[in-house]
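Repro:
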Amino acid sequence: MSVSGTFDCVTKSPMGDQKSVVTIVDNGDGTFSGTNAGAMGGMDLEDGKVDGNTLTWTMNMTVPMPMKLEGTATVDGDTLTGSVNAGAFGTMAMTGVRQG
């Protein structure tokens, strides 16, 4: 099962549940690219790495404040489970379900 896909995600943030659509494109060489599109705009998934079914990436948030976020997730079938580290704001749980 490929890690590629589009996932309806929810991140448990200090400001409440943040819904977003995460798109993952496996480049086939241990890296991936993608986007995280939510109510506050979209962010590119940068430095994406694939290790089996585990993904790691960074995102540069601009709204509501500039911040570098570090994400990690595991894709198991049609489910994505992981977290986003928001520095001083701590780690936020993230879950998603593949669209389709």
